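Hi W.,

Here's what went into the run:
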Amino acid sequence: MLSTARTIAALRETISGWRRAGQTVGLVPTMGALHAGHMALVEAARRDCDRVVVSIFVNPIQFNRQDDLDGYPRREAEDVAKLMAAQTDLLFAPAVEVMYPEGFETKVAVDALGDCLCGAMRPGHMAGVSTVVAKLFLQVLPDRAYFGEKDYQQLMIIQRMARDLDFPVEIRGIETVREADGLALSSRNVNLSEAERAVAPQLFEALTDLASELKGGGGAPALLPNGRRRLMDAGFTEVDYLELRREMSLAPLQQAEPGCRLFVAAWLGQTRLIDNLKVL
Amino acid sequence: MLSTARTIAALRETISGWRRAGQTVGLVPTMGALHAGHMALVEAARRDCDRVVVSIFVNPIQFNRQDDLDGYPRREAEDVAKLMAAQTDLLFAPAVEVMYPEGFETKVAVDALGDCLCGAMRPGHMAGVSTVVAKLFLQVLPDRAYFGEKDYQQLMIIQRMARDLDFPVEIRGIETVREADGLALSSRNVNLSEAERAVAPQLFEALTDLASELKGGGGAPALLPNGRRRLMDAGFTEVDYLELRREMSLAPLQQAEPGCRLFVAAWLGQTRLIDNLKVL
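Here's what came out:
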C-alpha cells in the first residue's frame, strides 16, 4: 500500500512508526518523471530495506535557468502507478513552500567536487543538489539512500557530503540503466525530437570507443578533441565537456589509470544529455 | 558517571543505548575552558533531558587567524572536573583528525545572517561554526541543543540552519552569565591583563546606557558613534562594531523597535570581547 506525505510532519509520523517497529528505511530521492533507471533504485532499496520511501521534488534551487525548471517533465499520476507496482511504501511529494519556506537561506556545498564538470557549466547547481539532499536525509533519516551512476558527479558529491557531515546513512550508487541502443535513461529524453533521439545513442558509443582507445594507451589530450568532433559531426549542437577524471576526487587525468572515468555533457537542440563510463 | 568518547563510533554506541531505553538527549557544544556560562547551559540541559552530552572541540575552521587558534585556552582536566560535578553523562572530545579527516571539503553556510557583525570581521568564521555544529548534530542527533546568548549571531545562525535543513533538534538559547561587574563570561577573559580586566566591564555598561537612550527615543545614527568614542576613551584599543539590529534577521535599525538588540565587538590589546543586549 503506497501512502503519500506532503508535509514533513506526516512523513516523520509514518517513519517513526516503522522505527519503533525496528524496521530499516531506504530512501530514493527523485525529481519524478520516473523511468526504469529510477525503478532500478527502488528495486535495490526494496531488496535492502524493510521500508522504501521515494521522494519526488523538482528542486528549484538546482536549476540555474527558469525555462529549464519550467520545462522539466512532471507526471505524478504515472509516477504513482509505477511506485505502487514496485511496492513502494511511501511517496514524499512536498510543495516548494514546504521545502523552502520564506526566509530560507542555508546552503550545503562540497567545494572542489562541485566546481568542475556540470558544476562549472551550471553555477549553483551542485550546491542546490547537496542542499536538498541534506534536507531529505534529515527529514527521513534513512539507513540507506540510492542514487544512479548516470549523475556520477552528483553521486560523488553526495557521498562526500554524507561522509564529511557524518550523516548516519549509507550511500549506494546503482549502475546506469540504458536503452537497447545504449542511450542512458533520463527524464529529459522525452524532450528529444525523433531526429534528435536517433542521434542521442552516439553519446554512449563515443564514450565506449574512447574508453577502449584510452585503455589501449592513448592519451586524453589527443583523443578527447577527436571525441568532441565526432559528437558534433554526429549532430550534437554543442559539447559542454568531454573529460577523463578520477572517480572519487574528480581530478582531471591525461592518461587512463585504475579508477578513472569518462564524463560527457552535450546538447541536442534544447536538450542537454549527460553520460559517463568507467574506463579502468 | 562521566564517560569520555574520542571517536564518533564510541559516541554513537553510548547514545544508541540511551535511545533504546527511550531516553532524551541534550547536547551542549563548547570549545572547552568551561566557565559558569557553559555550566548554565549544562544545567539547563540537565533539567530538560534524561542524558547530557557536552562536546569540547576547539574548531580550527572557525578561526581565521592561526595565532588566535594557537592561543585559545585549553584545559581539559579542569573541564572534566566541572562536568563531573554537574552530572554530565558524556564528554565528546574528538581530535581534529576525527572531525576533519583528509579530503574534507563540505561547508554549511547561512548566507545573509553570516555576512554581518562577527561574520564581516572574521571571514569564514560563521560558516566554520555552522559546519561544525551541523556535524555535532548529526553525530549526536540530540533532542535539544543549548547555546549561550552571548554569541547571539551564532545562536541565530544555528537556529536558522536547524530550521532550514530540518534538523530534528530544538535549539535553546540561554541568557548570558555575567560577572558581578557586568562583564559577560568568556573563555577569552583569562587572557586579559589586570589593567584590561579593569576596563572590560565598560563594554556592558556602555550597552546598558545606550539601550536606555535608545528606549528613550534617541536615534542609532547619533548615539552609536558616541558609544564607540566612549569605549575608546575608556581604554578599548579598537571597536570592530557597535550596532542596533533586529534579533531574528539581524537587519540593521536606525531606531529601537520591539525585538531589537545592541551588538558590540571591541579589542583590549590582543583580546577581542563581544557582548549584546536586548533593547526592546
